[in-house]
Amino acid sequence: MAPTAASSGSTLPSGFAVFTTFPDLLFIFEFVFGGLVWILIASSLVPFPLAQGWVMFVSVFCFISTTALLFLYIIGAHGGETSWVTLDAAYHCTAALFYLSASVLEALTTIFMRNGITYKHYHENISAVVFSYVATLLYVVHAVFSLIRWKSS
């Protein structure tokens, strides 16, 4: 494994160094919590299709994009170019903003569902809200550290 990929703070890691460097280690947690949001929204009752449709779009979009970026970083497709650092920062800022909007909409939808829905579906939506905010936090932290890496590149 090349030591330059993991030791330099302004370049993206490649290979399995992705799993040992921060903030790229957060890809795993973004993948897990984004998948949980996707599963919970897909399995819950949808009384407000527009709001929960946005949450579903965000969770699927970020899940697929995070998976694709993780795979591309592992195979070293970036080749150490700084344009990929810019792409990483832009993606994580966009994903953080998307997830923040989706989390707020899902929380609002869950509040409106409190009295008119079964106990099971209500708790599924509460879980989706919690995991959505955790995913938002992960994307925000990743975005901040990606911006720091972008600034130093």
From TrEMBL:
Q: What is its main location?
A: membrane
- Residues spanning the membrane: 25-46, 53-77, 89-113, 125-148
> Short name of one Pfam family for this protein?
MARVEL
Chain ranges of the MARVEL domain: 18-151
Superkingdom of the organism of origin: Eukaryota
The protein's location, in the record's own words, is: Membrane
- InterPro entries, alphabetically? MAL, Marvel, MARVEL-CKLF_proteins
Protein's UniProt keywords contain RNA-binding: no
Keywords annotated in UniProt: Lipoprotein, Membrane, Transmembrane, Transmembrane helix
For this protein, the record's PANTHER family field holds: MARVEL-CONTAINING POTENTIAL LIPID RAFT-ASSOCIATED PROTEIN (PTHR22776), MYELIN AND LYMPHOCYTE PROTEIN (PTHR22776:SF12)
The family note in this entry says: Belongs to the MAL family.
Protein's recorded name: Myelin and lymphocyte protein
Q: What gene is behind this protein? A: LOC101394492
